[in-house]
Specification:
Blueprint: H1 3-18, E1 40-46, H2 51-59, H3 64-67, E2 68-74, H4 78-90, E3 97-101, H5 105-110, H6 118-121, H7 130-137, E4 146-158, H8 159-164, H9 173-186, H10 200-209, E5 215-218, E6 221-224, H11 229-244, H12 255-263, E7 268-272, H13 275-282, E8 290-294, E9 307-315, H14 322-334, H15 336-346, H16 374-382, H17 394-411, H18 415-433
Parallel strand pairs: 1-2, 1-3
Antiparallel strand pairs: 3-9, 4-7, 4-8, 4-9, 5-6
Helix pairs in contact: 2-15, 10-11, 17-18
């Protein structure tokens, strides 16, 4: 790697660590410093279905929103979109606005692709839970995006089968393990749930709840702590349950998993707020038989949850109208009309707290019609979202997770060794890219 690229990446890491708008040193003048007048035509890359209808509310709104018009360009999601954004940015042709998953933000920031819009959207902070807002700041004074949707994690269970087998909804992970063992003793052909090695996001969320900080910065270096004590605790817990046969070890989102949920072979699922949509398809015959509760805690005195999924709206450094773009991003994710439309047209669970118990969320999901307080409870849980710590190569960590934990789950071997492999691969990749990594 050329020295100049290595130096730029390290300097960006320093900017993140210091929480300053020193990304300008990498050639990205902050949006708060620009003064604009006249019309602005913005382009927004997003994968969210129905977004064009939501944006129409802006384009046809009062005074046509200060002559700011937005055009939606539908894109693929995940790593595919991140790669496309970086490719476009390298040519100086990235769009004004992009939808970005929270874990993708450090990658985009370290490549100088996102602008600091703190002076334009700072007033929106109080509309989001602290742990949610933090994901768009990377723990600094800068703001690189406005939260759009979130995936606070929860515990879902078959209410009827819990009653049949005399099970109590676990409030701690120790109780969760005992519940799994009690069920297995009463009904050997059933499992409380499964450990799925094809869902790195689930494992990351569980580690987040436990207090893990996988990527942090110190001085001019990144520190990678994927195998920290908090994550080791999570890996040991789930690995132990798999090894003793207290839970299943098959992946989710397969025909076999769907059948297990639909027939009651598995009677619980650690998931997120979007689970009702998945259950509607995976287990249609059990509609109205499930209930939702907060995620079990590591200590009875704890009250936190992790995140599984979610995205934000960011402004790129290539935009010539950053203040206008930031204004739209704030409107899209905080305005009640826009949020109602996002829920109706796109089916998202909003990050903004004021929208989580209004509009489309006044009634429970049809699948959970038996739980009238579903969204009230979900909003309370969302407020307890723990801070996260994402880094510039989440994709590498996630790929190794699937390989290493997949093999460990299949052979019921040590999850700790799989975690160490995840750590080693992530550090090696960062060094290969030219990041300074603390040993």
């Amino acid at each position: 790697m050329p020295y100049t690229k290595r130096r730029r990446l390290v300097r960006t890491a320093v900017a993140i660590a210091l929480g300053a708008t020193t990304l300008a040193a990498c050639g990205s003048e902050s949006a708060d410093s620009e003064t604009e007048s006249g019309p602005a035509s913005l382009t927004y890359w997003t994968w969210t279905p129905g977004m064009d209808k939501v944006v129409d509310l802006w384009n046809k709104g009062p005074g046509k929103r200060d002559q700011i018009t937005v055009t939606v360009k539908k894109q693929a999601s995940g790593d595919t979109l991140v790669t496309k954004i970086l490719t476009a940015h390298k040519a100086g042709k990235a769009p004004d606005l992009v939808q970005a998953e929270y874990q993708a933000l450090p990658t985009l920031v370290s490549n100088d692709a996102l602008a600091d819009i703190s002076k334009n959207v700072g007033e929106a902070e109080d509309k989001f839970a602290g742990g949610v807002w933090q994901q768009t700041t990377l723990g600094t004074d800068a703001v690189y995006a406005v939260p759009q949707d979130i995936g606070p994690m929860m515990f879902y269970y078959r209410e009827d089968l819990f009653k049949e087998y005399g099970l109590t909804v676990p409030t701690t992970w120790d109780e969760f393990a005992e519940t799994a063992r009690k069920l297995k003793k009463a009904a050997p052909d059933k499992d409380l749930t499964t450990f799925s090695a094809n869902d790195s996001g689930l494992f990351a969320g569980l580690a987040q709840q436990a207090g893990a900080k996988w990527w942090t910065t110190s001085g001019d270096q990144w520190k990678v702590s994927i195998n920290d004590a908090a994550t080791r605790k999570v890996a040991k817990f789930w690995g132990g349950l798999v090894k003793e046969g207290a839970i299943d070890n098959q992946p989710m989102y397969t025909p076999a998993w769907n059948k297990a949920l639909n027939t009651g072979k598995q009677i619980a699922w650690v998931s997120a707020v979007w689970a009702p949509g998945t259950l509607t398809t995976a287990a249609p015959d059990t509609k109205g038989k499930w209930a939702m509760a907060p995620l079990p805690q590591w200590s009875a005195s704890d009250n936190s949850t992790g995140s599984w999924g979610g995205s934000s709206t960011a402004v790129t450094t290539d935009s010539e109208h950053r203040a206008a773009a930031a204004k739209f991003a704030a409107w899209l994710n905080t305005d009640s009309e826009a949020l109602n439309a996002l829920a109706k047209e796109s089916g998202i669970y909003p990050a903004a707290t004021n929208a989580q118990t209004s509009g489309a969320f006044l009634k429970p999901p049809a699948y959970f019609a038996n739980q009238a307080d579903f969204y009230t409870k979900a909003a309370d849980i969302a407020e307890t979202t723990a801070p996260s710590a994402w880094g510039p190569n989440v994709n590498v960590a996630y790929t190794t997770f699937k390989d290493a934990f997949g093999a460990a789950a299949k052979s019921t071997s040590d999850f700790g060794a799989a975690l160490d492999e995840m750590q080693a691969d992530t550090v090696a990749d960062m060094k290969k890219q030219g990041f300074e990594v603390a040993e």
